[in-house]
Amino acid sequence: MVEIKEYETITCDKEASKQFGYTYVDKTTFAQLEQLVLTFNDGEEADDAIDFLSISSKRNVGKVIRTKNYVGVLQVNDRVQLEILPKIHGSTTTDTRKTFLKMLKMLKDFPSKSFNETNLDTGKLPIFEVFIRLFIRDVQYLVKCGLKSAYYEVSDNLHVFKGKMNFSQQMRHNLVHKERFYVQYDEFGLDRPENRLIKATLEYLTKQSTSSENIKELRKLLMHFEMVQSSVAIDKDFTQVKIDRNSKDYEGVLKWSKIFLKKMSFTTFSGKIAAQSLLFPMDKVFESYVGKTLSQMLAGTAWTVGLQDRKYYLFEQQFAMRPDIVLRNGETGRLIVLDTKWKVLLNDSRKNYGISQVDMYQMYAYAKKYQTDEIVVIYPKVEPFSEDSEIRFMSDDGVKVSVWFIDCQHVEENLAVYIKKNNM
Predict the structure, then answer these.
(1) 137-164: per-residue pLDDT in tens?
(2) Coil, helix or strand for 82?
(3) How many C-beta neighbours within 10 Å does residue 246 have?
(4) H/E/C letters for each residue in 122-150?
(5) Contact 137, 117 (CB under 8 A)
(6) CA–CA dist 24, 129 (Å, integer)
(7) Contact by Cβ (8 Å): 277, 265
């Protein structure tokens, strides 16, 4: 497993890795990673590739590959797995993994919503093994609650007639065996599609995991599925999955099963990269983390929290405006627009702190459409800025934009300060 952080550089030159602090991989792995990116860049997902990995050349070094703002796990080959972690100010690798998992819990499509990241040995386990452990815990809870049985259709060649005849199979198999009947009938038991998929996932992960503890737990869970066949038609079984009031406990587990068995990704990628990755766009993770945490903190107050608000368009029903967070006070009518940006700012006012002009155009449009002078852009904290740092911009026609910083390791505390400071 090769560990790297976003916006860092990969090389196959050992001397360069020591001299410039680059992450070293062997030449074979580098060539495979390069081919992976080049293949991806030539496909329909080329626009997304800009945010994923980039290839360039450095003098006296040669080709290098740079990670961008997608983090998670990328399987390069059978031997090498690339773990890309977010760059979080002032945190160790252990703290980064814990914070990252805490952020992921708030992501809409993340399967496991309730877990304590401090009890997952994140300092010792790679992210992929943590995902396996989350799946294990969800299956353990499912087993504790009781695996659900259901009626399912069985096709078999029997000596007694049962259910209904399958005439096409009868003609194929029993022309010379008049004593047999190829029939279809319903049976009640555990061998339903949902359980077959979970068993297939457990078997698959016992071969993929490198953690002895995870493998032991996976094998223990397989004992509860002895009466279940492993799925041999994964796509077909997924189409037959039924989540209702009685099988609600299966929902998160089957999300994990789909991710592992179909090698799905949390990204928008649909090409070859998606078949080998569990990657998360950090701008979406950051946005979701701040928005959902703020929603929880303001629950029960006069404030409503709108995420990805779609009330306005730039023009008539064209170019939808979707600020990340819109706060509305039902009693006073006060309105605050917040937008999150997963970018590193510069401590240089002459360069506008590295803030994109496009981002400021966006904030100006929000102020005009929402008719509010409370526009806030939230960035992750980096040196030399602190949570108390605040940058303000004002236009000649009265639009005010505040730039505010959040420490990703202490989001709740930072938001509490913001709520108090702004009389919310």
Answers:
(1) 999 999 999 999 877 677 788 878 887 8
(2) strand
(3) 10
(4) CCCCCHHHHHHHHHHHHHHHHHHHCCCCE
(5) no
(6) 22
(7) yes
Does the pLDDT value for residue 421 go beyond 70?
yes
Cis peptide before 380 (omega within 30 of 0): no
- Hunting for tokens 């550089």 — which residue is that? 9
Helices first, then strands: H and E counts in the chain:
13, 19
Distance CA 376, CA 403 (A): 6
Question: pLDDT tens across 342-377, in order?
Answer: 998 988 888 999 999 999 999 999 999 999 989 999
Decide: residue 264, CB within 10 A, 0-12 exposed, 13-18 middle, 19+ buried.
middle
Cis peptide before 384 (omega within 30 of 0): yes
Q: How high does pLDDT run on average in the chain?
A: 86
pLDDT value at residue 263? 63
Neighbouring CB atoms inside 10 A of 374's CB total: 16
CB 380 within 8 A of CB 411: no
One CATH from 3.40.1350, 2.60.120, 1.25.40, 3.30.1380 for 283-421: 3.40.1350
If you average pLDDT over residues 226-232, what whole number do you get? 93
Look up residue 128 and give its two tokens. 């992929």
Indicate the DSSP class of residue 276.
Answer: G
Q: Where are the beta strands (DSSP E) in 277-354?
A: 277-281, 303-307, 313-315, 318-320, 325-329, 335-340
Residues of the chain with CATH 3.40.1350: 283-421
Other CB atoms within a 10 A radius of the CB of residue 139 amount to: 26
The pTM assigned to this predicted structure is: 0.82
Burial class (CB in 10 A: 0-12, 13-18, 19+), 356: exposed
- pLDDT confidence of residue 195: 95
